[in-house]
Design goal:
Radius of gyration of chain B: 29 Å
Strand order of the largest sheet of chain B: 2-1-3-4
Number of domains of chain B: 2
Oligomer: heterodimer
Number of domains of chain A: 2
Strand content of chain B: 5-15%
Order of helices and strands of chain B: HHEHEHEHEHEHHHHHHHHHH
Distance between the termini of chain A: 45 Å
Order of helices and strands of chain A: HHEHEHEHEHEHHHHHHHH
Distance between the termini of chain B: 22 Å
Largest sheet of chain B: 4 strands, mixed
Radius of gyration of chain A: 30 Å
Largest sheet of chain A: 4 strands, mixed
Number of strands of chain B: 5
Number of strands of chain A: 5
Helix content of chain A: 55-70%
């Protein structure tokens, strides 16, 4: 009797368990159909990443060229001619000449010139006298970052002109008594693209993760279909799993596509192992999807959900992740704030995996932190998803 | 007719304003973002940890190494490494951004007057920072070499001092090259853009989804009047947000305001009209709010990336530059920066501003055309 009873119970349990899997599976199927039918999901997962890759590959670059440089020559001499020539022949500058600085200075307003190099009338004399500062440079500081770069390039050209000048006069042994041999690891040509593209995957995955999910649950609430789902025997966990699984798979597909394009088309090396990249990306994707689901469960309103996704998703992943801006140079309150945004860890892991290889000291701590964020967001979502109507 | 449109405008305002969520979302986040992002937008390189690997204990090597300790603003920490393995590990783990390697014969070679190398290893994962740091290290080493040569008395004629002469930089408009001065005027453009775009891009789609659009259609309002009713509140909202931010810039961030406020306001209005045109175009195209949101993103992300906010417009290759020229945000950012910092005269300001007018005209016309088409 009792044996019979337990067997029955076991069967019931099995049925229930199987039932649960079946329930989740049907929900996944329903969501998948919704994804396939709604062109916007496909757009988010495949078209948007391509557009972004393209923009990061070609439109965003820290390698300056075509600097509009004004050169004021107040008096000619062979030295001046050489100096001007070294600016004219550089691929970084587009030179515009004048005899009077008043002709060029107004062009700095509005940025028609980025800098003006003033070679004074007594330049040659000063140079021979050993004056420390024979030329003057006016830099347009309106865009401070560009201004800094422009100044660096001008100083570089000036230095190499000095070296040439020294060699021309037979002073070669004096110069370069100490030579600097730079060796750039992981990115020999120091292309900013090679550093930007792997990092930009973090922005793309944040976008995909938050956008795909943040609208989903909010939409169900707005349209009232959530109430229909609540009337079914689905539990909270089932509901979340049903939403999570299809978008996770879609996100990983997008990740694969982005990796393929950046390595095969854009020529970024992948020096780390593919499985580790998959693990790290999956962890991050769990966070991004968790964040999106949390937003939509809390707001229940597509308008607000979109705004929230934008504010805690896209902009921080672009600005606070170290992708284009220098984390170390931010004021300390902002620097500590960046630790609260997982894209920071993902950008660092991606750069290491693509350019350096499987460096465990970098990957393991980063992935652990991302996993913690993912777990806490998913738990919070489970807590916040109410299965009762108010 | 005017009466009808004004009523509709009031209704649209209330629709946005009455929802407590969207009220909070429209006002608070842009201001917080202005505060946080303005401080974050910097390419400056400082607080770098530098590694030094010396195999030589001569005087020259010690002197050179000491120079790297002397600039704590750039190299906030200097770590001494003592084997090639430690060097490899430190760079791999991103503990240091660069390592200066002074070989075993450095001092001896220098004493003998022989040319000698200093090896600099840099982490290319941070390409931009690596290049800047390389420049700093270069300058330090060259200064050292020049002074060493002079100390040795070998090169005492003034002619030889030429090698250490430098250019005198003078920063116009932003004397300390403060990144905040350039980022905040740009953020004003980005954030007003965001507000105006989000209010418009979802508006028609939301009404379609909720079914209230049908009610608008059966009202005596003509399509153009409905469109106007959607456009005006968005422009007003974006504009007030912009004015609020400009006030913050002057009183909280203490930016100089050198240009004409009137011109900035006119530019901002033109800009917002262009954005509202884009938003309404997206909105008319979208069947659902999700599509509207997506459309907003498809515009917003490229617009920010090609705006000159994070990276200079001059770096965009020629064949892609025309996109930047069509980008209203790019124009707004450069106008905003110029008016704040450069004090342009009216001609210069007009020259920078006029492209916004045709852009706005085109986007509004396109929105009106599509809106009317989708109504039929």
């Amino acid at each position: 009797m009792s044996a019979n009873n337990t067997a029955q119970q076991r069967r019931a349990r099995v049925r229930q368990k199987g039932g649960r899997l079946l329930r989740i599976f049907s929900l996944v199927r329903k969501e998948t159909r919704q994804i396939v039918r709604d062109p916007s999901s496909i757009l988010i997962a495949f078209v948007l990443p391509m557009v972004l890759m393209f923009l990061f590959g070609y439109g965003v670059s820290l390698d300056l060229n075509n600097i509009n440089l004004g050169v004021v020559v107040e008096a000619q001499s062979p030295e001046v001619g050489n100096l001007v020539h070294s600016f004219q022949s550089s691929r970084y500058f587009k030179v515009r000449m004048a005899r009077d600085r008043r002709d060029l200075e107004p062009l700095l307003v509005g940025g028609r010139l980025s800098a003006v190099l003033v070679i004074p009338a007594d330049f040659t004399e000063r140079l021979h006298r050993g004056d420390k500062n024979p030329v003057q440079v006016l830099v347009r500081g309106t865009d401070a970052n560009t201004g800094e770069l422009v100044l660096n390039y001008i100083e570089g050209t000036w230095q190499s002109w000095l070296v040439h000048e020294g060699i021309n006069r037979g002073e070669a042994p004096n110069i370069g008594i100490v030579t600097v041999e730079p060796r750039i690891w992981f990115n020999e040509e120091v292309e900013s693209r090679a550093a930007l593209l792997p990092g930009s995957i973090a922005v793309i995955m944040t976008l995909i993760g938050t956008m795909l999910t943040s609208l989903v649950v909010a939409r169900e609430w707005e349209r009232g279909t959530m109430e229909a789902l609540l009337a079914t025997p689905l539990t909270r966990g089932d509901l979340l799993m049903g939403k999570f699984i299809p978008y996770f798979l879609l996100g990983m597909l997008a990740m694969g596509l982005v990796t393929a394009v950046s390595t095969l088309v854009m020529g970024v090396p992948l020096r780390g192992s593919l499985w580790l990249l998959a693990v790290v990306s999956a962890t991050f994707l769990c966070f991004a999807l968790g964040l999106g689901l949390l937003i939509s469960s809390v707001t229940r309103n597509q308008f607000v959900a979109t705004q929230a996704a934008l504010i805690v998703g896209f902009l921080p992943s672009f600005i606070l992740s170290g992708l284009v801006f220098e984390l170390n140079s931010m004021p300390w309150p902002i620097r500590y704030l960046t630790y609260l945004f997982p894209p920071r860890y993902f950008v660092s892991s991606l750069r290491t995996l693509f350019l350096a290889g499987d460096v465990w000291q970098v990957i393991v701590p980063n992935t652990c932190v991302m996993a913690m964020f993912a777990a806490s967001f998913l738990t919070m979502t489970a807590r916040k998803t109410k299965t009762k109507l108010e | 007719m005017l009466n009808r449109v004004i009523r509709l405008i009031i209704k649209e305002f209330l629709a946005v304003w009455r929802d407590p969520h969207s009220r909070v979302v429209l006002v608070l986040p842009p201001l917080i973002q202005l505060l946080v992002f303005s401080f974050a937008a910097t390419h400056e390189v400082k607080n770098v940890t530098l590694g030094i690997y010396i195999e030589d204990h001569g005087r020259a090597a010690r002197e050179l190494a000491a120079r790297f300790h002397a600039i704590p603003r750039t190299f906030s920490r200097v770590e001494h490494l003592n084997s090639p393995k430690a060097v490899q590990r430190a760079i791999d783990a991103q503990d240091v951004l660069a390592v200066v390697h002074i070989g075993p014969t450095f001092s001896k070679d220098l004493e003998a007057g022989k040319s000698t190398p200093v090896q600099v290893l840099l982490d290319g994962r941070k390409a931009n920072a690596a290049l800047v740091v390389q420049g700093y290290i270069n300058r330090i080493v060259q200064d050292f070499a020049a002074e060493w040569s002079m100390d040795k008395g070998r090169f005492r004629t003034p002619r030889r001092q030429i090698m250490s002469s430098t250019v005198v930089p003078r920063m116009w408009f932003n004397p300390n090259l403060s990144p905040i001065w350039s980022s905040v005027p740009a953020l004003v453009g980005i954030l007003t853009n965001l507000v105006a775009l989000l209010v418009t891009a979802l508006s028609v789609a939301r009404e379609r989804e909720l079914g209230t659009f049908e009610q608008l259609l059966v009202s005596p309002l003509r399509p153009m009047e409905i469109l106007l009713g959607k456009a005006v509140p968005a422009v007003i909202l974006g504009f007030s947000e912009g004015v609020l931010m400009i006030t913050m810039l002057v009183f909280v961030f203490r930016l100089p305001f050198t240009g004409s406020l009137l011109i900035l306001f006119v530019a901002m209005l033109l800009f917002l009209v262009a954005i509202v045109g884009i938003g309404l175009f997206i909105s008319s195209l979208a069947k659902t709010q999700q599509q509207g949101f997506l459309g907003a993103f498809m515009y917003m992300v490229p617009a920010v990336l090609l705006s000159g906010f994070a990276t200079p417009v001059e770096n965009i290759p020629e064949w892609l530059r025309w996109v930047a020229c069509l980008n209203p945000l790019q124009h707004m950012i450069s106008i905003s920066r110029t008016i704040f910092l450069e004090g342009p005269n009216a001609t210069v300001a007009m020259n920078m501003m006029w492209p916004l007018a045709p852009i706005g005209l085109v986007t509004l016309t396109a929105a009106a055309w599509l809106f009317r088409k989708r109504m039929e």
